[in-house]
Amino acid sequence: MSTITSRPVNGRTNGSMNGNTNGHHKVRFIPLTYNQAESQTSALRLILTLRPEWEDGKIEFVRFTDGITNTLLKVINKKPGLSDEEIDNDAVLLRAYGQGTDLIIDRERETQNHELLMQHNLAPVLLARFQNGMLYRFIRGAVTSPADLRRVDIWRAVARRLAEWHAIVPCIPTPRESLTAEITGSEQFGMPAPTPSRKDPALQNAIDNVAPGKPSPNVWTVMQKWIYALPMETEAEKGRQASLQKELTRLVAEFSNRPGLGKNSLVFAHCDLLSGNVIIQPRSANNANAPETVSFIDYEYATPSPAAFDIANHFAEWGGFDCEHDLLPTQSQRLDFIREYIQSYFTQLGQPLSKTDEEAEVHRLFMEVDVWRGIPGFYWGIWALIQATISQIDFDYASYAEIRLGEYWAWRAEADGSRKASGKEMAVRERRWAQES
Known about the structure:
With 437 residues, the chain is an alpha+beta fold.
């Protein structure tokens, strides 16, 4: 299968091909920096530090994406006589972080996620870190499109892989060192400076404890951090921030203690399963009729979350970046997806269920995903408001924010009955969600 990579639409996807590794190993740190202004020179310096034996080879760079979130380069050594597949087997992906992304993404946590997933054979081999990025192994595969996500064979594969993530990868808290240790470590090891919240222990404490009783980080701490990072230069911006903070407080009260799968009702969630982050794995010649299998890439947003949030978030991506709400899964499609997920989840746990118990779990999760359907719009709406101020990608983040937040408010109006009481027409997304088949 030819190698395809994700495109830099809306800055939320920067692709690589996912692969497997056996066991855990200490990740090397290279005290160098990738410089966008001297892209090839600085990238070559990093690659030759990692692969000094390539010095006399024919090194080529293939640029996949270039934006505020990441710069991603595939680096190959075109040795004579090797096939494309053999060259790809030795290829390296260089991923450099974009300016300003510490406002949104905890890069230390991302690396921790990658290493954790490697231990469970769910991520490509992380070869090294450098001052503003990482180097990891390239594995062949094909990125999906939103239309692919709606294919039965693909969504079944997604359901199985997502269940594997949720069942076997543990949720681990992030230990907080003293502020002095964080800053010293940052300078000593050339890591990015602490994010604004980590410079202020009181602010970090407020983030970590936004959902009492839940280990940090989690989906609630992420949203709280983002709300604190919103622009507040104008009265309108201050009003928007206050409104979103009030709503988050309401959501935490309503949702954070709902029962669900996993320890503390949290699972290790991807939280960004758009089409560009789902990779179709190549079939082997000896197993051409096997079911499709997929892997997930880009672990920037992965954090302990309710399983229902991760699933509802993925369903929202069936409509693609253009938010085509009439293409979201119907009730029957969601039920079939969740049935595949539940079967895989309990099989991965080594706890296969009776048909009666399995159906009870399916319908319980189906209802829970239904309840959570508006929260991804709130999550990505806040994110887009920040991106509208910092991103250099040619994308209308401000409009995207209003669309996603509009999904949340439409759900809220449907859930509390205010839409029906006002006599307004049901939103397209809500109408599609209620459609049976």
